[in-house]
Amino acid sequence: MQSTMQDFPLTIAAILRHATTVHGDRTVTTATGDGFRHTTYREIGADTARLANALRRLGIAGDQRVATFMWNNQEHLTVYLAAPSMGAVLHTLNIRLSAEQIAFIANEAQDQVVFVDMSLAAQLAAVLPSLETVHTVIAVGDGDVAALVESGKTVLRYADLLSRESADFDWPALDENSAAAMCYTSGTTGNPKGVVYSHRSSYLHSMATNVVNGFGIGFGDSVLPIVPMFHANAWGLPYGTMMAGADLVLPDRFMDAKSLIQLIETQRPTVAGAVPTIWNDVMNCLEKDPGRDISSLRMVACGGSAVPVSLMQTFEERHGVQIRQLWGMTETSPLATLAWPPPNVPREQQWALRATQGRPVCGVEARIVDDQGAVLPSDGESVGELEVRGPWITGSYYLGRDEAKFADGWLRTGDVGRIDALGYVTLTDRAKDVIKSGGEWISSVELENHLVAHPAVLEAAVVGVPDERWQERPLAAVVIKDGADVTAQELREFLADRVVRWWLPERWTFVDEVPRTSVGKYDKKTIRARHADNAYEVTEVRD
Amino acid sequence: MQSTMQDFPLTIAAILRHATTVHGDRTVTTATGDGFRHTTYREIGADTARLANALRRLGIAGDQRVATFMWNNQEHLTVYLAAPSMGAVLHTLNIRLSAEQIAFIANEAQDQVVFVDMSLAAQLAAVLPSLETVHTVIAVGDGDVAALVESGKTVLRYADLLSRESADFDWPALDENSAAAMCYTSGTTGNPKGVVYSHRSSYLHSMATNVVNGFGIGFGDSVLPIVPMFHANAWGLPYGTMMAGADLVLPDRFMDAKSLIQLIETQRPTVAGAVPTIWNDVMNCLEKDPGRDISSLRMVACGGSAVPVSLMQTFEERHGVQIRQLWGMTETSPLATLAWPPPNVPREQQWALRATQGRPVCGVEARIVDDQGAVLPSDGESVGELEVRGPWITGSYYLGRDEAKFADGWLRTGDVGRIDALGYVTLTDRAKDVIKSGGEWISSVELENHLVAHPAVLEAAVVGVPDERWQERPLAAVVIKDGADVTAQELREFLADRVVRWWLPERWTFVDEVPRTSVGKYDKKTIRARHADNAYEVTEVRD
């Protein structure tokens, strides 16, 4: 028996049609530093068609890659829409990667055209000569393009380009499984790996952002993606907001706390998304200037690294803003789990559940497995590597790289943790950072969390280092606060009250700062390498 | 370039997995007349597996049809889940259809097994001998099965059947485009026509019910589908509620206003769905008994026929309950449009927008076309037939019936109306009921709405009848309230203040009641036939 339903493809073009018709009067606002500029989805739709015409004229055909090197702004949004809807593939370049990584990525993806914000022109110009397949650079905004021209590439202005084109484009019929966009992981091990999103996966992920159990975006909202459009699709907020017909507020490059508070106060978004660091900065800024008002926000999505409960509590109690922790990665589009308690849960337990990475939104399935790949129970106690699957989870990397990350239809996330009976996921470590001591696992992150709770400690990173007897043992690299004083012995005693005895590090080093990756996470690979090179002065403390 | 995303099918089984694991402790409540019985999704999952084992044992294989003749209760839910998830096709029989229609439908669909609530056993027994392909009847609940046994079919008890089976079932991998469920239209013209939903369409429709701009169901909710599971999938609420991990409250056959109020007061659902008649009864009942509390409801979905603004206002002002009008049909799964105003709209305009059929939820696209199929502008003025398309809209009928309803990838809904610039659809008539007078269209529904506003009128139906000069002219069939008195001349003068002159009916008939279809709509075909047979005494009034 055949289904009688229409064979209707889920595409970015369908989101574009919906937003530009039913919600055509809703606005897109972009920060300009000294103010804001506004447009509507109807106008964005016209510019998107102009841009598609321009890209065709520049020779973009088939599924060629169209790259961006841009902040969150309305022009970036038109590339987000035009490239996939015309059948090409959007490739967002992460401006925070090294020049070498950017060149590797752009060359592997064979990018043809790059859109660049003029505020990033110097940074792109430095790497442009290494971008072998790029023939054209499209400069967005005013300013001197001389540095870009030096590369020998064709350099065009976005505004000029659009001014010559028609606001009608004959959008092609596309297979929903065809490539829509690609994004590279910013993994610290080896070269970045490409994830290629399909129209289908992007559409379904957008629906998930509109679902109440997801971000819950509806046309009553105004959404502020602070998380960059060059990294993990700004958590799907641009497409999701357009699908919902909500207003979109874009901070461009003005992402310091003061600018963000000004933006929130004047543009009154109801939903925002950013990493904890940003909200921490905003909180500190609000403490110094308590008259400011961010209460238009009803919900703030927060992820990228673990969200401190104290941050969530401060926002809720002082500013009436709910922070919802979420977890995901480039490979998961990224919305995978979201931490919100069910109704009728006592207040104390609510905070415990909100401190987890959350539970899978419908569409995503999660499980934990042991070293041998055996599935462990979701009992809140068993610890293993998190695996996920679903229609917006990647099943391979571009060009088949790193096949070991995929098994039996599941993505091996490289995150280690546990799942409770109601699906709440608590991640305790990256698999590569877990310290394997005598066959048992020690969580480096839990040790770090306890260490930073010590009043003298500013930062602390814990890594596994080789040990003759136990294979690996923890090394703690600690940054002491200005003017504070503490010994390894004292810190070890501090920890002894908080973790099991065999977790206590014997090796301690005091450093000026913890090395970080391009996205601001602790660079544990570098710490381990420095330790192997004897670059650290290590104090050994045993009982 | 290939997408790297997982090839993950959207299936009912995926909804089942999500609800029974992540939301396994949420409850399903069924009314029993003198109380309520409760179970959990975890238990529903176990029963669903038992049922799938039982159906396999009864020989259900491949995509054979499994029919239900049931109210909204937990057993019906297990058939909703088991049949599609095992690869079979759920076929919900509409108990309100005539015996002839039920036999036609079950035979055309080649139903193998029928589940029947014992409270409906007598009704099914009457038609059972005509169900040629049905070999087994599964009786749900207690009571004498003798009448069913008389048919010569095998008769089994649901509870006995499940008690013998394992709570594990090896669910097959299914193509998301395979058939999951079927439902017949209850059209008054010709035989009912079959719509075959796919797993994909059911899954996407469920997501739409979870989307904020849809029903907005999340795991904070408790959902009461009063709209029957035997008609248009109870508006997708059973699957949608499970996908959301919300509680489900099922009224079984106890759908009188008093029982519903009792249910709402004690079980405290937050979302409910029913046709206007039901809410009208509830409103009248609450007027007589103002101490009752239905304020647990935050949102009530209402559709199936136009929702009077007065009903919405009463619910909101007296009971704090929002009624949201929606429009859809069996062919649209059914959620297609939903009437909710954008933010920042003045209060007066809000009611005007809420009185429309609403605008398309993302996924559904709508347009109006004229007699020749030319697309008309969405300008709020042009009137034409509504066409819709999308991933949960049907593209044909089972066995290719009534091909004229489908053109160019769009479903011709048979509804006539207009669309405004923001997508709000206002339906004024069924295409077959529009009165075509001298090349122009007169809306029968608008005339009816004005007539029932007259204090002496209880009901009024207007149909087009043949006219020598104008091709068609309106005939008004009016039911006068008990004790009231009014003449055709007076009603015509009443209308003259409200519609354009050439709409005024010349032909009037006063009747005891307006004939209705099986689903309670005015049966205009019968009215026209009775008029043609001179069965009505017609008063002619001209100026």
From TrEMBL, chains A, B:
<dbReference type="InterPro" id="IPR045851">
    <property type="entry name" value="AMP-bd_C_sf"/>
</dbReference>
<dbReference type="InterPro" id="IPR050237">
    <property type="entry name" value="ATP-dep_AMP-bd_enzyme"/>
</dbReference>
<feature type="domain" description="AMP-dependent synthetase/ligase">
    <location>
        <begin position="18"/>
        <end position="398"/>
    </location>
</feature>
<protein>
    <submittedName>
        <fullName>Long-chain fatty acid--CoA ligase</fullName>
    </submittedName>
</protein>
<dbReference type="InterPro" id="IPR000873">
    <property type="entry name" value="AMP-dep_synth/lig_dom"/>
</dbReference>
<keyword id="KW-0436">Ligase</keyword>
<dbReference type="Pfam" id="PF13193">
    <property type="entry name" value="AMP-binding_C"/>
</dbReference>
<dbReference type="Pfam" id="PF00501">
    <property type="entry name" value="AMP-binding"/>
</dbReference>
<dbReference type="InterPro" id="IPR042099">
    <property type="entry name" value="ANL_N_sf"/>
</dbReference>
<dbReference type="InterPro" id="IPR020845">
    <property type="entry name" value="AMP-binding_CS"/>
</dbReference>
<dbReference type="GO" id="GO:0016874">
    <property type="term" value="F:ligase activity"/>
</dbReference>
<feature type="domain" description="AMP-binding enzyme C-terminal">
    <location>
        <begin position="446"/>
        <end position="521"/>
    </location>
</feature>
<dbReference type="InterPro" id="IPR025110">
    <property type="entry name" value="AMP-bd_C"/>
</dbReference>
